[in-house]
Amino acid sequence: MSDQNDYIQATQQIIMALGLPRAQQNERSALCLLALLNLTPDKIWADADNPLMGITPIMDWIREHYDKAYAPNTRETIRRQTMHQFCDAGIALYNPDHPGRPVNSPKTVYQIEAAALTLIRTFGTLAWHDTLIAYLAERETLVARYAKVRKHKRIPVKVAPGKEITLSPGEHSELIRAVIEEFAPRFAPGSLLIYAGDTGNKWGYFDAALLARLGGNLESHGKMPDVVLYYADRTWLILVESVTSHGPVDAKRHTELAEPFEGATVGLVYVTAFPNRAIMGRYLGDIAWETEVWVADSPSHLIHFDGERFLGPYKVP
Fold first, then answer.
1. How far apart are CA 261 and CA 243, in angstroms?
2. How many domains are contained in the chain?
3. What is the DSSP string of 190-254?
4. How far apart are CA 169 and CA 203, in angstroms?
5. DSSP letter (8 states) at residue 102
6. Which helix (H) or strand (E) holds 160?
7. Up-side HSE of residue 262: CA atoms within 13 Å toward CB?
8. What's the domain range around 24?
9. Per-residue DSSP letter, 143
10. Judging by beta carbons within 10 Å of its beta carbon (0-12, 13-18, 19+), is residue 140 exposed, middle or buried?
């Protein structure tokens, strides 16, 4: 088989046979599967391979071998509407070389799962039907196994005595955990967690009812900080931006963060959290006045960008 369209149509048949929803039974998903198989039009199904490939290399491969050019802004569509479903179905593996890689890492890669590769290599042969039946009988076990591996890699965070959530792996989530477990007990003891973002699932934790009672705007989710704490003793909402690769609470972000809480009945405290002082140093010139800075590797100290409010001598040790 050498015609490009024949290969695309055949791959769509495979996707249907594997039981993926109609939304994935399209040309885009077929081309992505062909890329993961490194199956160029001059090969046969038995030649299918399983290289590690990221989203951009997949798009480049499709353009080179099947003359289909996807716009750069299609990356997210491919990730969310094709690769995510391939992984959920157990057809592809997510970061098999490094399962703990952060969700938003540019090094993210995918790979065809071994049993799926063995099955697809039989397509068009007499062995296809029996191999497909055997594969489908075992697939639920495979999906459960890989889901267990992904769950094991998630980061546990204690949000209250006896209550724990998990966040996607990565240094950003590690910093969010530090804010909740180290910053909050020191500087807002007894505070309640209202919101914690997650790079893999933006709604990592959200107490919508409490935020609504305090006057927060639930429709402004896109502008939420990484962590929101309610410090009842002071009647404060503490808004924390965790910085590992993106900017701190600068003047623009200060204004953005205020918008969801315009109707709040509590005072707002703005905090930028950094993992260490080296990263903080990159952003010192951007940090807004009337905000706080907390550094995870010096957890017992705060840096105040508040002008004369905290001016005064320290006692000699």
1. 21
2. 2
3. T-EEEEE--SSSS-SEE-HHHHHHTT--GGGGGG--SEEEEETTTTEEEEEEE-SSS--S-HHHH
4. 15
5. -
6. strand 155-160
7. 9
8. 4-152
9. H
10. exposed
Q: The whole model's pTM is what? A: 0.53
Reading the chain (317 residues) residue by residue, the pLDDT tens digits are 457 888 999 999 999 888 887 888 899 999 999 999 999 999 999 999 999 999 999 999 999 999 999 998 899 899 988 998 898 888 999 999 988 787 778 899 999 999 999 999 999 899 998 898 888 877 765 455 555 555 555 555 666 566 666 666 677 778 888 898 889 889 999 888 888 877 555 446 777 788 888 887 755 545 778 888 999 889 999 999 999 767 788 888 888 888 888 878 888 899 999 999 999 998 998 999 889 999 999 999 999 987 666 655 555 55
CATH number at residue 303: 3.40.1350.80
The label of the residue with tokens 């296809």 reads 128
> Where do we find the tokens 């900017």?
247
280 and 237 share a domain?
A: yes
**17: enclosing H helix or E strand:** helix 4-17
What b-and-e string marks burial along 50-64, b requiring 16 or more CB atoms within 10 Å of the CB? bebbbbeebbebbee
Beta strands at 163-167 and 155-160: parallel, antiparallel or unpaired: antiparallel
